[in-house]
């Protein structure tokens, strides 16, 4: 009878010690969820409604916001239900669905940031070939790869976890995670561990290395340029991505590192904060970073909010425009030659 009970549900233990404070956390969680949905929906609407923003980087930004909505939906509805309820159990099927959603969200975030880094690399290091490389067809293939590969690899990982016979049902987290389930296994989990390393290598560590490579190349190009304006524009167009990348990398490092600790080795509050950081901070921070950094998105968001026509100066290209990041570095091929910038870069 016990084994049958264990196989029917999982039990979240971290909700036990919260008492009446869980209603405070419920209110805070609801506000965070509403904020994430509001800001990211605004970003997506601003980009969809303005055809002038139907360009590679803006399309990838909208995908980043769509992923934020997807990941938040995988976490918050269930979390808010548990905070509001006295029963903190979840069925096996619901738990594995949540694992799939949260882990694909995490993988999508890194693969999207990698695609954005590639776009900036081409724009700054190969500006003359940018429009011939970053075609609509190529962008569609990139986005398809960004979504399909993590979906397949995470799906296989979840199936490997489903097959494990379990000797317990207590999860020391606020949501279902693959490592929490694997820990409960009664048999060897070598296959799961090796496959988990493969997934982490291909969806986290390899993208991380590629992003670092692109920024090293961008720094080299900027160092070879004698134009201060060129360097400023390159920095401005890369800065939002750097902020998002650094923020998410730190959050994922904390999650991966501290999730390996056994229950009781760390204070519960530390476990809770670190396990939620990568699911809350990036979806909340990214729309603010991109919305405030790019005038085109700012203007369109204001237009959507007020339902009024854009101001006359909205059509004037801004120096911080992403198109302005497609900089001409042909003059860098010969030392001492006069620097040439594209008309877009001078706008």
From TrEMBL:
Bilayer topology: Multi-pass membrane protein
Keyword Transcription regulation carried by entry: no
Gene Ontology terms, MF aspect: G protein-coupled receptor activity; odorant binding; olfactory receptor activity
GO cellular component: plasma membrane
Sequence ranges assigned to domain G-protein coupled receptors family 1 profile in this UniProt record: 39-290
Top-level taxon: Eukaryota
Pfam families: 7tm_4
Protein name: Olfactory receptor
Organism: Clupea harengus
């Amino acid at each position: 009878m016990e084994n049958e009970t264990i196989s029917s549900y999982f039990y979240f233990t971290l909700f036990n010690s919260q008492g009446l404070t869980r209603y405070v956390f419920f209110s805070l969680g609801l506000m965070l969820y509403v904020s994430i949905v509001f800001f990211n929906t605004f970003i997506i609407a601003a980009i969809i409604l303005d055809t002038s923003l139907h360009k590679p980087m803006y399309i990838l930004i909208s995908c980043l916001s769509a992923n934020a909505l997807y990941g938040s939906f995988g976490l918050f509805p269930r979390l808010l239900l548990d905070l509001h309820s006295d029963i903190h159990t979840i069925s096996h099927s619901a738990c594995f669905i949540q694992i799939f959603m949260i882990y694909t969200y995490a993988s999508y975030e890194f693969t999207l940031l990698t695609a954005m880094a590639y776009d900036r690399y081409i724009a700054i290091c190969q500006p003359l070939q940018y429009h011939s490389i970053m075609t609509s067809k190529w962008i569609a293939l990139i986005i398809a790869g960004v979504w399909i590969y993590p979906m397949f690899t995470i799906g296989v990982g979840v199936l490997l976890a489903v097959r494990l016979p379990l000797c317990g049902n207590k999860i020391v987290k606020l949501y279902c995670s693959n490592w929490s389930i694997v820990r409960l296994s009664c048999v060897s989990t070598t296959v799961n561990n090796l496959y988990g390393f493969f997934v982490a290598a291909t969806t986290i560590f390899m993208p991380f290395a590629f992003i670092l490579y692109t920024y090293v190349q961008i720094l080299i190009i900027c160092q070879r340029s004698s134009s201060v304006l060129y360097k400023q524009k390159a920095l401005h167009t890369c800065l939002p991505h750097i902020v998002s990348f650094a923020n998410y990398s730190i959050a994922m490092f904390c999650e991966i590192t501290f999730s390996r600790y056994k229950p009781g080795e760390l204070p519960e509050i530390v476990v809770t904060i670190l396990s939620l950081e990568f699911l809350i901070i990036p979806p909340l921070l990214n729309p603010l970073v991109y919305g405030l950094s790019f005038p085109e998105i700012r203007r369109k968001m204001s237009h959507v909010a007020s339902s009024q026509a854009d101001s006359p100066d909205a059509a004037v290209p801004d120096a911080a425009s992403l198109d302005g990041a497609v900089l001409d570095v042909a003059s860098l091929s010969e030392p001492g030659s006069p620097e040439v910038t594209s008309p877009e870069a001078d706008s």
